[in-house]
User: What shape does this take?
Amino acid sequence: MLEIGTIRLRAWENKDLEHVYRWENDFETMLYSRGKPENAVSMDTLNERYDEDRKNEKRKQYIVEHIADNKAIGTAVIRLDDWGDVRIGNIGTYLDKEYWNHGIGKVITLALLDLSFYFMNLDKCDAYSIEYNKRAHKVLESCGFKRSGIHRKSGYVLGRRWDWYYFDILREEYMAIREKKIREILGTTDAERYISLTNKV
Ligand SMILES: CC(C)(COP(=O)(O)OP(=O)(O)OC[C@H]1O[C@@H](n2cnc3c(N)ncnc32)[C@H](O)[C@@H]1OP(=O)(O)O)[C@@H](O)C(=O)NCCC(=O)NCCS
Assistant: This one.
């Protein structure tokens, strides 16, 4: 579990599936996160997926919770993969619509980077985002990701083809800006608390 700013990233529990069911059947959430607004997933499928994901060491799956009221407000994931000797974490997140545009996405992305590089010693993180998801691009770039590739016309959404953008950040790039980004994204008080917590030894 990791607490950072006003949120915590904790393990999924069976009880979270009712929220995930709502989020993964929501038109706008799936439009932006998957490029699949028509996504329809049953509770049975989610239960099966939950059982598989729980045992999968290569998938670090989190529920994002508001610390103040312990409310589940979204999900976050790091999918681990090796490219030869290079250890990569592919990250993803979505938030309940009610919480969009309040600065939480940047905190989640920072948390996923810190987990990947400061806690897990990965070499690189990457993320995919569809062409029209300008908010997500802004969040990734604000956290230090660079847009380093394009999968041209690889998604078909609402009547036309779209590019998928590929973003990445290397461990050394993140470590060079880590404390600056923590201060920038969390604000002074939360940043100092988090930096001191993560400098304990
Ligand atoms: C993407 C998501 C996680 C971001 O979280 P969030 O809390 O809404 O984002 P934040 O408030 O931290 O930051 C949003 C940034 O994008 C900017 N932004 C918002 N809409 C924008 C737009 N249409 N064009 C450009 N920038 C935009 C905001 O101004 C803000 O930047 P700033 O703080 O520098 O001004 C969240 O919106 C979400 O769950 N969206 C649906 C699912 C999704 O897109 N998942 C990501 C898939 S890659």
Remarks:
- The pocket of coenzyme A is lined by residues 29, 32-33, 93-95, 100-106, 127, 129, 133-136, 138-139, 142 (CB under 6 Å).
